[in-house]
Design a protein that fits this description.
This protein has about 260 residues and is an alpha+beta fold. About 20% of the residues lie in helices and about 30% in strands. The protein folds into 2 domains: about 100 residues, Alpha-Beta Plaits; about 130 residues, Pseudouridine synthase I, catalytic domain, C-terminal subdomain (Alpha-Beta Plaits, 2-Layer Sandwich). Helix 1 crosses helix 2 and helix 3 crosses helix 4. It contains 5 helices and 10 strands; from the N terminus they run E-H-E-E-H-E-E-E-H-E-E-E-H-H-E. It is globular, with a radius of gyration of 19 Å. Strands 1, 2, 3, 4, 5, 6, 7, 8, 9 and 10 form a 10-stranded mixed sheet that branches. A hairpin with a 2-residue loop joins strand 8 and strand 9.
Length: about 260
């Protein structure tokens, strides 16, 4: 059987998604829990390899197994062997042509930024932070320029292993809610550090360090050296992975701005 799993996790507790020799990845924790549940080694494939410190509310993975369990058992049985910072939130049997990574049509992320004079004591590992006032309207105008198919080399990490820097961005929005800014991005795929680098560029626009024209010029230059520094991983969330409806996966609205932790007081 091929089983698809929906996952959420606190990225601050892990060195990223991918398995590491010291077993510090989310993949390591999940594979260990599944092995304990089914009594055999299990290999997990995910929709995306989130970096150290990056969180997930809508990660999708799949496994192949001969063990037959109902959906609730896959959720509860696996979670019984997981630490509190990672959870399976749904499970369903899928066809063999489903692949968590290669079947994905798009991926959505949000970046949550606290824009205040003082960084929050309770949110340092769950939101980004910037102390100077930011112009959200100017940031939104700059974000709109990124929509469509482009070469995103200016926002690509030097160690990125993607075959091509050309990606298609379907959504790029910036919204202020009190002291927080919510950045929303959806694309067919993302480059390594692409969102955190874009957020850094938009913050530079919002803080008046770069003009709209300078942001355009940096984007067009396809040169990472010219762009703003990479922003903290703390505020980044993988919120959704989109698949063809024919696979029958659950539709789950996992958005960080729906979480009570981010409601304005």
């Amino acid at each position: 059987m091929r089983i698809a799993l929906g996952l959420e996790y606190d990225g601050a507790e892990f060195c990223g998604w991918q398995s590491q020799s010291n077993r510090c990845g989310v993949q390591d924790a999940l594979e260990s829990a599944l092995a304990a549940f089914v009594g055999a080694d299990v290999r997990v494939h995910s929709a995306g390899r989130t970096d150290a410190g990056v969180h997930a509310l809508g990660q999708v993975a799949h496994i192949d197994t001969d063990v037959i369990r109902d959906a609730k058992s896959w959720v509860r049985g696996t979670n019984a062997h997981l630490r509190d910072s990672v959870r399976v939130v749904w499970a369903t049997a899928v066809s063999r042509d489903f692949h968590a990574r290669f079947s994905a049509r798009s991926r959505s992320y949000q970046y949550v930024l606290l824009n205040d004079a003082v960084e929050g004591a309770l949110t340092s590992k769950s939101v980004g932070f910037f102390h100077m006032p930011l112009d959200a309207q100017a940031m939104q105008a700059a974000a709109t320029l990124l929509l469509g198919e482009h070469d995103f080399s200016s926002f690509r990490a030097a160690e990125c292993q993607a075959k091509s820097p050309v990606k298609t961005l379907y959504q790029a929005t910036v919204e202020r809610r009190g002291r927080h800014l919510f950045f929303k991005f959806r694309a067919n795929a993302f480059l390594h550090h692409m969102i955190r680098n874009i957020v850094g560029g938009l913050v530079s626009v919002g803080a008046r360090r770069h003009s709209q024209q300078q942001f355009i010029d940096i984007f067009a230059a396809r040169n990472r050296v010219m762009a703003a520094p990479t922003f903290s991983a703390a505020g980044l969330y993988l919120t959704d992975v989109e698949y063809d409806s024919g696979f029958g996966l659950p539709v789950v609205a996992s958005q960080p701005d729906r979480h009570p932790f981010f409601f304005e007081r």
